[in-house]
Amino acid sequence: MPRENVFWNTALLPSQEALLERIKQIAVLDPQPEIHVRGDRNTAYEHIGRVIVTCQRGGIQRSGFITEPDRALRADRRPAEPEDDTRMGMSIGGGDDEPMMDINMTPLIDVMLVLLIMFIITIPVMTHAVKLDMPRATNAPSLSQPVVINLEIDFDGTVLWNGTPVDIEALEGYFRR
To answer: Which of 102, 122, 124 is nearest to 114 (CA)?
Structure first.
């Protein structure tokens, strides 16, 4: 596995501990600078992750990974400004040419307000109820026992009403009562 090289501006740092000490020195500044980590195209993401974790351990509140090429290498931008001692090969933000690291909250707030308005409009609709006149239940139990009728049909088609054989006309008369 190749050794990861971490630069503070143009100076090669000997170890992650040296990087941590430099970060602790700038973490106490007021206002605290943002750290933008940049790597060349051959840099593995695990090395970038280690540097960002080191920034967090050092007390830096805001750090991020920048994927744009170095300003000095791009033809459509002016050459990079001279670097001072508080900038790193990972670049601490603050200049006008630096990418913005903040999330634009305006669209999120707009969506939240639209959802809130929809909620306010739909709540009154959900609270309207249809009034129904339902019958009142009587709690008095019935004292009469239901009449149980045993109706049987034998294999030969004989119909028995409570054990007594009846013909079809008599059965229809029993049902009509």
So the answer is: 122
**Which residue, among 93, 121, 109, has the nearest Cα to 34 in the 3D structure?**
93
**pLDDT tens for each residue of 104-163:** 788 899 999 999 999 998 887 777 677 888 888 777 777 788 888 888 888 888 888 888
Pick the closest to residue 98 from 90, 109, 106 (CA basis).
Answer: 90
> Residue 79: beta bridge partners?
none
pLDDT 10s digits, 25-38 = 888 888 888 887 87
- 3-class SS letters over the chain: CCCCCEEECCEEECCHHHHHHHHHHHHCCCCCCCEEEECCCCCCHHHHHHHHHHHHHCCCCCEEEECCCCHHHCCCCCCCCCCCCCCCCCCECCCCCCCCCCCCCHHHHHHHHHHHHHHHHHHHHHHCCCCCCCCCCCCCCCCCCCCCCCEEECCCCCEEECCEEECHHHHHHHHHC
Residues 6+ apart with CB under 8 A from 4: 43, 44, 47, 50
Cα 72 from Cα 162, distance rounded (Å): 108
